[in-house]
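Running this now, will post back.
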Amino acid sequence: MTRRYRNNSQQKKSSFKAILFNKWTLLGLLFVLVISLALYAARLTNKNIDEQRQAVLAAKKNQEKKDKDAAFKIYEKNMKPRLDFSKLKKSDYPELKKEILKSLKEENYSGSVIAIKDDKLIVNSSIGYSDKEADKKLTDKSEYMLASIQKSFTAAAIMRLVEDNKLTLYTPLSQFFPQIPNSDYITIRNLLDMTSGLFLADYEKNAIEEEEVLNEILPNIYYQPLYNGWEYSTVNYTILAGIIRKVSGHSYQDFITDEIIKPLRLKNTGFYDKLLKKEDRTKSYKSTLEDPYSMPYTISETKYASEIGTGNIYTTPSDLLTYFQALIDGHILRKNNLESLMTHDLMYFNYTYASGVYNRDGYFLAHGVFMGFEPTALLTNDGSSGIIFMGNSYNIEHMNKDLITELFKKITAPEEEANTPVDPNQQVNNNVPDGQFNDNNYQATGDEQVYY
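Update: finished.
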């Protein structure tokens, strides 16, 4: 009897424990289920929030594009270049035209030239061959590599981002490329003015795509303190191209095309990849004093690609003049921002360098060299008078800057002096160069270097 009672008692306890266990198990399972449902609901909510956020951002981006397209249409309709070269066939200064062409022929010049005085045409002509071996002559439609003058495009693009409050001139480089030496102490302004102390070591060029090109270049950048506070180094503008990519969210090529080339309707301006598809593209040559076509250059695609931000755009003299005049007239940047961009206090050999051009009181010079191409522009600050050379034959001992300086003096001289021979070493008046535009004081690097 006692044993049976004990057994029943133990069975009851076991049953109770089993019921209790099952109860807590059920509660636990229920708790897990509730938590799981809550987490699932949270995920759905977050997903919906993310989707809504993405939709809002996409709608905002789409609206921005529509607004930009609408603004562009208005801008394109209103933006008129000062000079329409399709209609300008006759020179307003025939004697000056004769003198310029005579000087170019005497110098065995090969290339295209545009010269203007008071926004009137002096000359728009081409001399020589685009392909000597095929006996093809240069024309006013011949296209040339822009070389270092492209740095002005890069600088203008940076200032567009400043105007959009996406950047400041004093933002530290470390915000974008902290791996670059001394980047905490280098600003956007330093890069624009080439006062950063950054240089590029020799490296093997293999990349074609922009991101890959930058990835190849970045590990080869080094810092060196500057003795005079300034030294020419093209890698400053390669870095700026990388910053444009990071800040704008677009490729450098797309940003320059959308913000400068298309709005200004530069029909004969573009990037090297488009040029390489043209069978009749202008060839470039190594020149001697006797033969401007002594040896044609062979330019690899990797060489073109490596000049991102510094020299892989092609153009014509008329397109380049349109660009500079549009820049001066406030069609690309606000005029006060342009002044800030072009102003630099430090003087080097009677000129200052800022944003891709050399400045003096009253005028500026832009010059470049790339694998036989030698573009040079010398214009008054208001863009009304000046001369642009686009050469496809280059001699390091006989650059066209000396000749363009002499001709610029002729163009900007008072009317009564226009036909008087000018001593290239003597300053005609206070508003023309004195022959001191000379960047031979530095070791050429990047696209300024001559490759044989």
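The two ends are 116 Å apart (CA to CA). More later if anyone needs it.
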